[in-house]
Write a structure and sequence with these properties.
Strand content: 15-25%
Number of strands: 12
Number of helices: 15
Structural class: alpha/beta
Order of helices and strands: HHEEEHEHEHHEHEEHEHEHEHEHHHH
Largest sheet: 7 strands, mixed
Distance between the termini: 46 Å
Strand order of the largest sheet: 9-8-7-6-10-11-12
Shape: globular
């Protein structure tokens, strides 16, 4: 795997590739390749021993032409300014491609959360929420969970914001626990959209997902849920991995049993009779479907030359570099892009926000039905652009759809002052 590619430059290159197929003024395209504002701050919080620690944190607001900024908050030692900018841009285009009325946002704190106690993480999260307070709001910027954050952290942010504002505003953040205003189906939403994207792609290619061999790199929430749902559709999950390494068994695994093993032991390794493999080996297995579900830049141009999968569905944000895309286009590998495939999370976050504003809860069945409708309609739009615009791949087609919608919103609003 590579950590050399700058994700923000990857985003800008992807926008340029799509812009070649659109009639948009250069000034507008410059706007579509840069965030509108970026918060960069130091958070000082108290450790359990009474000492103080200071860490770096960010919040990027990329484009608000279609609605409030929307995007997750991640806790990871690799968080950087450019990473957060890129992720906020991908969020803007993700919302546009599935026609959710949001802009793009993303936040991050440069820490390894395993180094801290729960009480320390709470103080850190509340310190970040205090810094975010002037920027966020139900109609301004709505954060959500991301890598190494979840319902717990979202509940803390909601409580901090509501306490400081002396109000009740459950829609200020999504991905909350159900009793705090969360939505049914939100935890599984990202993995569900990945599974739906795989199903739609195999149908479009006139291939059968039932019996297809599947490898999943990254076995957190998105990867494990996608694996289980693809298994339900008949796919044969033969390899999975996490940060500790991977396992491979040509006879296949029970994805839910692997997840239970990881929950109990902290790693997928050691499950069953499968052979131990590295993450790089998993990414180059000869499988029908590869699902990269970890972090960005998992596959660069060099590694892409060894990729043997027929279809790649991106569950992570930015797992392929532009150089990898170039190689895979030449190899006729179909790549279903992140801004569409993993959009289930933001789609159900939108449903949660709608429910919060209405003070009315939907059933899980309704959430899943609405999500399936959004994903299948978005896929049809991407295929239409791919087949009708003479673009080179599905990623470019998705950006053509997304950028077109953002440009239309910008034109309709007009430029002021």
């Amino acid at each position: 795997m590579t950590d050399q590619a700058n994700p923000f430059e990857s985003l800008r290159e992807q926008v340029d590739d799509a812009a070649a197929h659109l009639d948009a003024p250069p000034g507008v395209l410059t706007r579509l390749k840069n965030p509108e504002r970026l918060l960069e701050t130091n958070l000082t919080f108290e450790l359990d021993d009474g000492s103080l620690e200071t860490v770096r944190a960010y919040r990027s607001q990329f484009n608000g032409d279609r609605g409030p900024y929307k995007g997750g908050i991640r806790y990871h030692p690799g968080v950087t300014r450019d990473e957060v900018k890129a992720l906020s841009g991908w969020m803007a285009y993700k919302c546009a491609v599935v026609d959710v009325p949001y802009g793009g946002g993303k936040g991050g704190v440069a820490i390894d959360p395993s180094d801290y106690s729960e009480s320390e993480l709470e103080r850190l999260t509340r310190a970040f929420a205090t810094e975010l307070r002037p920027l966020i709001g139900e109609d301004r910027d709505i954060p959500a969970p991301d890598v190494n954050t979840g319902q717990r952290e979202m509940n803390w942010i909601k409580d901090t914001y509501e306490t400081l504002e002396n109000t009740t505003a459950p829609g200020v953040i999504t991905g909350k626990a159900l009793d705090s205003g969360g939505s049914e189906g939100r935890v599984q939403a990202t993995g569900r959209s990945v599974a739906l994207a795989a199903r739609e792609t195999f149908d479009w290619l006139d291939r059968d997902l039932a019996g297809a061999t599947v490898a999943v790199q990254g076995y957190g929430n998105a990867g494990s849920v996608a694996a289980a749902l693809i298994d339900d559709l008949g796919g044969d999950v033969v390899a999975v991995s996490d940060s500790s390494g991977g396992i491979h068994d040509p006879d296949g695994f029970d994805p839910r049993a692997v997840k239970a093993h990881k929950t109990e032991t902290g790693a997928v390794s050691g499950y069953g009779d499968g052979a131990s493999i590295t993450n790089e080996e998993l990414l180059t297995l000869d499988v029908d479907l590869l699902v990269p579900a970890a972090l960005e830049n998992a596959i660069d141009g060099d590694l892409a030359a060894d990729v043997a999968a027929d279809v790649i569905v991106e569950a992570a944000n930015g797992p392929l570099t532009p150089d990898a895309d170039d190689v895979l286009v030449e190899k006729a590998v179909y790549v279903v892009p992140d801004i569409f495939a993993n959009a289930g999370g933001v789609t159900v976050s939108y449903f949660e926000w709608v429910q919060n504003r209405q003070r009315f809860s939907w059933t899980e069945e309704r959430v899943n039905e609405e999500l399936e409708r959004v994903i299948t309609e978005a896929f049809d739009g991407i295929v239409e652009a791919y087949e009708g615009r003479d673009v080179r791949d599905l990623r470019t087609a998705a950006y053509v759809v997304a950028i077109g919608r953002i440009v239309d919103a910008y034109d309709q609003a007009g430029n002021w002052p």
